[in-house]
Specification:
The chain has 246 residues and is of the alpha/beta class. The strands form two sheets. A six-stranded mixed β-sheet has the order 6-7-8-3-9-10, with helices on both faces. A four-stranded antiparallel β-sheet has the order 2-1-4-5, covered by helices on one side. The chain is globular and about 50 Å long. The protein has six helices and ten strands; from the N terminus they run βββαββαβαααβαβββ. Helix 3 crosses helix 4 and helix 4 crosses helix 5. The longest helix has 18 residues. 30% of the residues lie in helices and 24% in strands. The structure holds adenosine-5'-diphosphate and magnesium ion.
């Protein structure tokens, strides 16, 4: 049987910050594919380029060099309209939950629904409350974030990211601000919801205790993808003189 097309296909991606004499290469010859329903964890030291790569994949930054395809569509030189449309198909979860403090849990989720599709307020409310129930916050829908714990806030952020059934969720250190137990609960929840919906997840973490939820682990070091557990023997690349880790 042929494997389906990847959700994300990255080919020889490079990225630079700064201009002129200050121009500095941050990502080097990145190659990565992520398939439907896969949970991929990315680890690596601080400053190795993980957030930069995630923001490129998420269409939050323009691709400068190389190819990056989301659901078969090329993002290199893509128009702003195309990027905006693509971002609608991605759920984002960041280290800080980024909830709006003056909106209730339900309103925070509902806003994501209403920005994504034309839908009656009644339907949007039903959808948002169902999603909050799915993350175990059915009794907290009318609470404001300030009255909830860190783990509960991060669960609202998960509900917000998944409420539109996106094919891809990008999570940048989602457990960094949580204690061990709520961190674990949060990623297990993401895993379960992703499995139910067939969503792919790319999750950046420093947290060794959650690596087991991954189908695959990839590692970044100094702007290079040095390990891919699916593709252990990374090939020698003569253009960069870099040998991948065995
Ligand atoms: P990580 O998420 O792995 O910690 P980042 O992608 O945030 O790594 O950063 C990679 C490198 O790029 C670091 O050296 C960082 O200082 C640099 N960097 C990140 N963002 C910017 C920016 N907006 N402008 C210039 N340099 C940046
Ligand atoms: Mg980072």
């Amino acid at each position: 049987m042929m494997r389906e097309d990847p959700v994300i296909a990255i080919d020889n991606l490079n990225h630079y910050y700064g201009k002129g004499a200050l121009k500095k290469q941050i990502l080097f010859n990145i190659n990565l594919e992520i398939f439907a329903g896969e949970i991929v964890i990315m680890t690596g030291p601080s400053g190795s380029g993980k957030t930069t790569l995630l923001s490129l994949i998420g269409g939050l930054r323009s691709v400068q060099e190389g190819s990056l395809k989301f659901l078969g569509k090329e993002l290199f030189r893509a128009s702003q309209t195309k990027l905006v449309n693509m971002r609608r198909k991605i759920g984002y979860i960041f280290q800080a939950h980024n909830l709006l403090e003056f909106l209730t849990a339900r309103q925070n989720v509902q806003m994501a629904v209403e920005l994504n599709e034309f839908i009656s307020p009644q339907r949007a409310i039903i959808k948002s409350e169902a999603m909050l129930k799915a993350v175990g916050l059915g009794d907290k829908v009318n609470h404001y974030p300030e009255n909830l714990s860190g783990g509960q806030k991060q669960r609202i952020a998960i509900a917000r990211a998944l409420v539109n059934n996106p094919p891809l969720v990008l999570a940048d250190e989602p457990t960094a601000a949580l204690d061990k137990q709520s961190g674990r609960a949060v990623v297990e929840l993401m895993q379960r919801l992703a499995r139910d919906q067939g969503t792919s997840i790319l999750l950046v973490t420093h947290d060794n205790r959650i690596l087991d939820i991954a189908d695959r682990i990839v590692e970044m070091e100094d702007g290079l993808l040095t390990r891919d557990s699916q593709n252990q023997a990374m090939s020698y690349d003569s253009s960069t003189n870099i040998i991948g880790n065995p």
